[in-house]
Amino acid sequence: MPDKYINKGSLSVSTDLEAFLKSEVLPGLDLSEDHFWASLENIIHEFSPRNKELLDIRESIQDQIDAWHLANPGGEKNLDVYKDFLKDIGYLLPEGEDFKITTENVDPEISSIAGPQLVVPVMNARFALNAANARWGSLYDALYGTDMISEDDGASKAGAYNPIRGDKVIAFSKNFLDEHFALNNASYSDVSSFCVKEGHLEVGLNNGASVSLKNSDQFQGYQGSADQPSGVLLKNNNLHAEIQIDPSHSVGATDPAGIKDVLLESAITTIQDCEDSVAAVDGEDKVTVYRNWLGLMKGDLKETFIKGDSEMTRSLNPDRSYIAPDGSNFQLSGRSLMLVRNVGHLMTNPAILDKDGNEVPEGILDAMFTICIAMHDLNGDSGIKNSQAGSIYIVKPKMHGPDEVQFTCDLFSAVEKSLNLNPLTAKVGIMDEERRTTVNLKECIRVARERVIFINTGFLDRTGDEIHTSMEAGPMIPKAEMKQQPWISAYEDWNVDCGLETGFKGNAQIGKGMWPMPDEMLNMYKTKTMHPESGANCAWVPSPTGATLHAMHYHQILVSDRQAALLERAKASLDDILTIPVIDDIKSLSPDIIQMELDNNAQGILGYVVRWVDQGVGCSKVPDINNVGLMEDRATCRISSQHIANWLHHSICSEEQVIDTMKRMAAVVDQQNSGDPSYLPMGPSYDGIAFKAACNLAIQGRVQPSGYTEPILHEMRLNFKSS
Q: Is 712 a member of any domain?
């Protein structure tokens, strides 16, 4: 149903949003309803024109780039000429003098603890809670339930507990302890008991001897009694692990030391996402998003659901209590430190209409509402606190260059002032996922140097922008070849180099992108060491289980040492970043290769879009053409749609071929979803809203602003909701 409105000053506000603010957000805050709406009205009227101007600049620059490529075929190969052109149009800006960021009041989870980072759709309360609670994860469960442990030799994970598999899990876990919390001349497989004597951990062995940790400083505390602890807390590379002891437990009863599990500090931070992983298109949807964020900030979010035959209720975990070696009591956070990702600059939302009846830029709404809601955490009313440093952490995506970063900083300042918050309370994470931000990253950081807490490489959106920006340069290489291109490795290194150059070490996060295959944890474990090795102190994982497994990499690699070493290397090449991945020889594309590429792209688009439009699901594990489950969100959809659009534009394929491919792949997607009772098949008529949306994303992809998928997806979802 379309939004219904109530007048607040010159604004028309969705009745859902107005009621939510009045009855749920403002109680407990020293803010009146009139003050909130009057402040937002002023901010909207000040910043909406600036927002539009920045979007117009994007389009103007893109038009100039398109015209240049058409006038200079192959001209980008002369990098000096190409760079001069980019400078002339204000795309490539001069780099200023060196500086260091000065952000204050930053929690250690961001400044000094390296570890996994979850990204989760805040629109789904259960997922949001699971992610927030993923600060601690069971290593035993993560190993047992995934392909990390082979099912060979009778170690199947199906059915009831399999002791053969359990033994493999225990052996892996004790080997992990041996590697990172070594005992003097002994292995954890030889341990029969733990006790604490005079502030030291004493470890009894099966042969009656006692040993200690090689590094006694790793012992941080315990739970239970000193002579028979129920938990032993250890620390390595600034990360905790807890050996849990319970001889009465079914697993602990089989262990000589009574060890039932090893808990790892896992998801150090979590981004609660209002953007690419959600489908929020109107006031009703925005209330769902904001209500869950409110529950997280007040500490009272709960979700009840049926699992098996039982009703379960999930809520935020309390802090964990320990006894220090000196006998004092202390606590560690039981939850991931939460950041919130606002939407970017592009989209408007009918949740609020301005004085002229225009939809308001959604990023302005997000800034006002997410910051206002986070004031509940700053007040600390619940006892379940997020930021101990008194900061609000906002990740801002899809900014193009320093002027857009400046806009965001100015917007946050205006919101802080209107809500009577201290200046610079709201911190900003800069997602480096647009080409114009990449090439000007140092200047983007300079603009935000007083509030920046995060940069990362979002290679999925970045690839989509790479294709769209250089659409007229020629046909792009197949998608699978992209990761081997000079621009992408230089981009990944450049991001780290810029962060270290501007003082991120020990002060802020440098992040890396998502592992997209949630069922392939062994492959992740074998390859994702590259992220801490690259100097990144956080990297995205698709699940709490993935966070626990990825956490082991940060025990293997001390990121601060890697960053110190990387400070000595030469900065990545801007020339490499500006190398455009066009096909050198179109003749290398056989009809079979072309069709295979179209099949792959179309199937990914359809599998994602059909759930987005019909069910309002913004992030899905979508089986690919080979039935491998891939985490899909708008970023992956952007790549696939832009790639088809590029090949269409350069006559590598025809519109008829694309439509035919879409129909064939829709049949595949329908079959893959046949077990979902809420799924609406696209075939055999292929005339539904979701199928039309998928086709439009490809066929109209070239003319979409910056190649984004949101305009089409929002329009089609609104059509579906009103149908």
A: yes
